[in-house]
Each structure stands twice: as structure tokens, then as C-alpha cells.
Q: What sequence folds into this?
């Protein structure tokens, strides 16, 4: 394994992740303080999610053609550009003009996020030899799984910077820090990393194996299930019904993401060093559906809502993290080395699609049926994900690739 290049890729990914989480919290808090309506706030992130779908589809093809160094650094520089342009927002503009401007700039950030994520995840397979010792899985998972914890840290960073440096100042600080990381990564990484040995035809973007297609479908519903409660339902319920402070709501969401990342980092311990297959993915998906059903049933049964939400979503996060970690290994197990960017890009396109649909359903179901509607929507999506997982290959195709399993986030 090329340890130097691995450290560079991981550091770049970590740096981007912190700015990504900070930017989301920064934009949400700043525009909320300006009096923007919940609908306007939701629109600020709409293009962010949509362009993630497009990026994951075409980014994998670009990465296979030009190499992962180009797409990784391109994502970092694009985020620097987005941060700088967001800092130029004119407070004198109308709400409509401001929302439109931020939506467009957030689309750049969405492209940057998924371009960087796809590149970093794909690079792990390129940098680690397939015959590496399986015990390396634990070390790799600890490093890369912490991405989710850093996403939560980013929420805190965004709120802190907004408090001490203001909106524009915070964005310039983050842009400068990420620019340094981008330039250093460009100088350190080798050209051609992850480039396909043969040219990949554009039509091959949709010519995936059956296993990749099934896994991507399961991934779509898995992350859609998460965002149905995560984006609108639970935050508004905690603030509007349980009367939590905005700081309390933000802290809860950040801690959930951090805890989710910690569980993913420890997933090799839960898996006991064994390469997972479709069978284990199915078992954990079914367990997640059971947990998802118990939460709204607990609320309907008259249990303390605060206890049900905190305890229920904590258990949900544990099972969700393990299931997500298994998916992250399987997408590498099901793909060929020099075409990894294509398959990972397609897989993350499904991931982004699930987040977009989950985001839209979160608002719609909460408006129509409250938190119960969101939670039952989550159950429906987890159940579909479990049924799809039954069609995955029961055993790993390449168990020797356990050493390069990447524990990812998603989300948010």
C-alpha cells in the first residue's frame, strides 16, 4: 500500500468534509436568522441534492477517463469557488434573488461534494493492493469512517464561525483553508491515479452488473429512509412539539451523525474481521425495518415522545451504520479495479437520489401526517431496501478485498 498517497487522499477528504458540514449549518442558521420561511430554507438545499445525482453519474466516467487525481482536486477547487461566491451574497438583494443565487452556488457545492467523495472512496481501492492483509480493514475503517464524525464536527464549526466571524468571514476562512489543502493534494498525488486501462464508452455508464444494480437500488431506499425523518420531520418535531431550543436541535442532529460515524469506524469489530456478503446485508436491513416500525408504534402507544425519539433513533443509527458499512464494502467487492470509479459513481448516484426523494417526502409527509407520517415513511423505505437486499449475492465475490473496504457516510 502507498501509505503517503493514502494519507493525502484521506486528509483532503477530511478537510472537505468539515467545510461541507459547516457550510450546511452556516447557511441554515444565517438565513433562518434573516427570517426566511421553512420552504425557502428547503429550496436553498434542493440543487445541492439534485446535482449530487448528476455528479455521481458523470463523475465516475470522468474519473475513469482522466484519473481520480483530477476529479478529487477538481472537487476541492470547486468547493473553494462555491464558498467564495457565497461570501459575495449582497444583503440588499430581494429574498427571491438571494434564494436563487444561493441555490446556484449550493449546486456547485453539491457537485464538489459528490465529486470529492466518489474520488476519495474509489482511490482507496486503487491505493491498496488486493492481496493486502485483511487486518488492514480495521485501520482503514477507523480512518475513513471518521468522515461521518467530522461531518458532525462541521455542524459545530459552522455555528461557531458564524458567531465569531459572521457569514462572509466564515466563508472566506473556510475557502482559504480548503485552498491550501487543494494545492497540497495536487502537488502530492500522482497523475493517472485510478485511470482506466482501456477507454470507457459513455454508454457503459448504465451497463452495470446485476449485483451493482441491486446494491444501488437498496442504497437508494436506505438513504431515502434516513432522510425522510432526518431532514424535516424530527428537527421540527423537537422544536415545535417538544419545544427544544434551536441549539439543542442542532446538537442532537450533529451528535447523531457523529455517533453514526463512530459506529461505522468500529464496524470491523462488529463484523469480527469477516468479509460481509449479501446475506448479512439482508439481515441488517431487516433489523433496521423492525427498528423503524417500533419507533412510531412506541409513539402511538403513549410512551414518552422524548425517550422514544432519542432512544429509538439511537438504535436506528447503530443498525443503519452497520448496514451502510456493509454496502460500502460490497460496492468494491462487486467491481473491477480499473473501472471502480464508474461503479462507485453509479452507486453514489443512487445514494444521492435516495437523499433527494427522502428530503422531498420528509416535508410532504410532515405536512400531511406529522412526525408519525415521516416515521412510517421511513419504515416503508427500510422494508423495500430489505426486500431488495434478498437479491444480492449471498457470499462475497472477492473476500480478499476486505482490506480495502471503505466505511462511508452519506449523508449528511
A:
Amino acid at each position: 500500500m502507498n501509505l503517503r498517497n493514502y494519507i493525502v487522499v484521506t486528509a483532503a477528504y477530511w478537510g472537505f468534509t468539515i467545510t461541507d458540514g459547516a457550510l450546511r449549518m452556516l447557511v441554515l442558521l444565517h438565513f433562518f436568522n434573516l427570517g426566511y420561511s421553512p420552504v425557502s430554507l428547503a429550496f436553498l438545499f434542493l440543487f445541492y441534492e439534485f446535482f449530487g445525482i448528476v455528479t455521481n453519474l458523470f463523475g465516475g466516467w470522468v474519473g475513469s477517463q482522466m484519473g481520480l487525481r483530477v476529479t478529487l482536486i477538481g472537487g476541492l477547487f470547486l468547493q473553494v469557488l462555491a464558498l467564495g461566491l457565497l461570501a459575495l451574497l449582497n444583503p440588499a438583494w430581494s429574498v427571491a434573488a438571494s434564494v436563487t443565487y444561493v441555490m446556484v452556488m449550493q449546486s456547485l457545492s453539491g457537485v464538489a461534494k459528490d465529486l470529492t467523495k466518489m474520488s476519495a472512496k474509489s482511490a482507496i481501492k486503487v491505493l491498496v493492493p488486493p492481496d493486502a492483509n485483511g487486518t488492514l480493514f480495521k485501520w482503514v475503517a477507523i480512518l475513513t469512517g471518521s468522515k461521518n464524525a467530522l461531518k458532525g464536527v462541521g455542524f459545530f464549526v459552522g455555528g461557531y464561525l458564524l458567531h465569531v466571524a459572521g457569514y462572509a468571514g466564515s466563508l472566506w476562512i473556510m475557502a482559504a483553508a480548503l485552498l491550501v489543502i487543494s494545492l497540497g493534494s495536487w502537488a502530492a498525488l500522482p497523475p493517472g491515479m485510478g485511470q482506466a486501462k482501456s477507454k470507457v464508452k459513455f454508454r457503459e455508464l448504465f451497463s452495470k452488473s446485476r449485483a451493482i444494480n441491486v446494491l444501488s437500488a437498496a442504497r437508494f431506499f436506505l438513504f431515502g429512509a434516513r432522510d425522510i425523518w432526518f431532514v424535516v420531520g424530527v428537527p421540527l418535531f423537537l422544536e415545535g412539539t417538544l419545544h427544544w431550543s434551536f441549539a439543542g436541535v442542532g446538537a442532537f442532529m450533529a451528535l447523531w451523525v457523529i455517533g453514526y460515524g463512530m459506529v461505522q469506524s468500529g464496524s470491523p469489530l462488529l463484523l469480527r474481521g469477516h468479509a460481509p456478503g449479501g446475506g448479512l446485508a439482508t439481515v441488517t436491513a431487516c433489523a433496521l425495518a423492525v427498528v423503524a416500525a417500533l419507533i412510531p408504534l412506541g409513539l402511538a402507544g403513549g410512551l414518552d415522545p422524548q425517550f422514544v425519539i432519542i432512544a429509538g433513533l439511537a438504535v436506528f443509527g447503530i443498525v443503519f451504520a452497520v448496514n451502510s458499512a456493509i454496502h460500502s464494502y460490497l460496492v468494491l467487492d462487486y467491481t473491477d479495479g480499473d473501472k471502480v470509479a464508474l461503479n462507485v459513481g453509479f452507486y453514489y448516484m443512487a445514494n444521492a437520489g435516495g437523499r433527494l426523494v427522502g428530503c422531498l417526502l420528509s416535508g410532504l409527509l410532515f405536512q400531511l401526517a406529522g412526525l408519525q407520517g415521516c416515521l412510517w415513511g421511513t419504515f416503508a423505505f427500510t422494508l423495500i431496501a430489505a426486500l431488495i437486499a434478498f437479491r444480492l449475492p449471498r457470499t462475497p465475490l472477492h473476500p480478499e478485498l476486505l482490506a480495502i473496504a471503505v466505511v462511508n457516510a452519506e449523508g449528511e
Summary: Residues 3-187+209-404 form a domain with the Growth Hormone; Chain: A; fold (CATH 1.20.1250.20). The mean pLDDT is 80.
